[in-house]
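User: I'm writing a tutorial on reading structure tokens. Could you give me a worked example: one chain, its sequence, then its tokens, then a sentence or two explaining what the tokens reveal?
Assistant: Sure. Here is the example chain.
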Amino acid sequence: MTPAAGPADELLARVFLTRVVEPGDEAGGRWVRQRGAQEAVRLLRGGAPRPPGVSERRWTGLLARAERAEPQRDLEVARESGVRFVCPGDPEWPRQLEDLGDARPLGLWVRGRPSLRMWALRSVAVVGARACTAYGAHMAATLSAGLAERGWVVVSGGAYGVDGAAHRGALGAGGATVAVLACGVDRPYPRGHTELLTRIAGQGLVVGELPPGEHPTPSRFVLRNRVIAALTRGTVVVEAAHRSGSLVTARAAQRLGRHTMGVPGPVTSGLSAGVHELLRGDAVLVTDAAEVVELVGDMGELAPDRRGPVLPRDLLDAAARRVLAALPGSRGATADEIARGAQTTRDDAVARLYELRSLGYVERHGDGWKLTRQAMISVRGDRSRC
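And here are its predicted structure tokens:
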């Protein structure tokens, strides 16, 4: 009698498959869902006949990869690097990844101490251009620091530009951040971010679908973005040209029903053209962390009202403002003329004029009334904003 397979067998099977099946392979994911991970491994190791719907060329490639797969060794190498493997069914597995269907990861390699599942529950993706401007780097860092200060986890891709600025902003605020890589998490990429990724692993989490030692490819970068979108409650794009990979993350977020946000830039900047395209669609314009949290957070987490400075004139009641507005700017006027301009009675206009004189807005000249110098500056400023 064959002993029943346990969690350890399932984990080994999925580790094996991460070495054989490429990230985001929906055909492979469907096969695992229908047959189970352990049965899939048995078929690959036993050189089973090609399944329906799989080309001869692809099946041959999968069998060749399966011959070289050593899941036990991958786990040993991972442990030596302080890396663990998390798969569906594990308490640490983020259940929102199930929204990816057959394209969900077979498992995730995780470097760092915190619980990935708990951190992902309150997380926001901040992504954007690699070759970002100083404005883009500033906005990414400031926005991420603000999110971290509000207790949110900042998720990004560990790349140069906006990604790096987002991670540094969260770390600088003493907050939490997660880097999702398109390679083995024991292999820092890009090399120039080795120190940053080491710091993230010490203070946060470094996550990836690929087993130890695997290198990134263009297709792996694109497919990595679906994980960033699925892990988080929403995605903020800071700067992105029309063909930026960060737009892939934003569109994946939209397909998954997540919030999609964009930080506007100059209309003359090609690096903001992709963001502006998103904003013309279903994405929401945001300018700071408070506005992001208002969208992705719980009920009551509202951004403050945005208002200009309160001017002394704003404190006047409506009737007094009408009388003040009726005074000519360059000459004096009689009470009758002012009353007609304010659409009120002469007695009411006179009462308001004495009130305005006590506040320093008008002064009396014989039978007429005239704006003071300070009031003229105030009124001109108000009119210039109209």
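What the tokens reveal: The first strand starts at residue 83 and ends at 86. Residues 87 and 107 are 4 Å apart (CA to CA).
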